[in-house]
Amino acid sequence: MRRTAPVATARRFEKRYVRDTSQYDARLVEAEERKLAAARETKIDVGQLDRVDEMQSTWQSGSDELLTLKAGFGGTVAKMEKAKAAVDVAEEG
C-alpha cells in the first residue's frame, strides 16, 4: 500500500482536478455569455436633452483650456526648478 497509494491518490486527484476545472470553465463561459446577452438587450433612453449645443461648447472650451494649461506647464516646471537651484546655491553660501 505504501508504494501504490500515493500513485493512486495522485491519479484520482488529477482526474478530479481536470473534471472540476473543465466544469468551472464551462460555467464561466456560460455566465459570460448570459451577461453579454443581457448587455446587448439593454436599451438606454436619455430622453429629451436640452441645451446640447451649450454642453458641447462648454466641453470644448474646457478641453481647449486644459490643452493650453498643459502646454504652459513645462515652462512653469522649468522656472520652479531654476528657483529651487537658486535657493540651494543661496543656502550653501
Radius of gyration: 33 Å
So what's the overall shape? Answer: flat
Spatial separation of the terminal alpha carbons: 85 Å
Q: What is the helix tally?
A: 2
> What ranges have pLDDT less than 50 throughout 5 or more consecutive residues?
none
Instruction: Return the structural class.
Output: mainly alpha
Largest sheet: none
Question: How helical, in percent, are the residues?
Answer: over 70%
Question: Could you spell the SSE succession in H and E letters?
Answer: HH
What is the beta-strand fraction? under 5%
Provide the residue-averaged pLDDT.
91
Q: Number of DSSP strands? A: 0
Could you explain how this protein is built, in words?
With 93 residues, the chain is mostly helical. Helix content is 84%, strand content 0%.
Please give a quick description of this structure:
The chain is an all-alpha fold and 93 residues long.
What descriptive keywords fit this protein?
mainly alpha; 84% helix
Task: Write the topology of this structure.
Elements: H1 5-41, H2 52-92
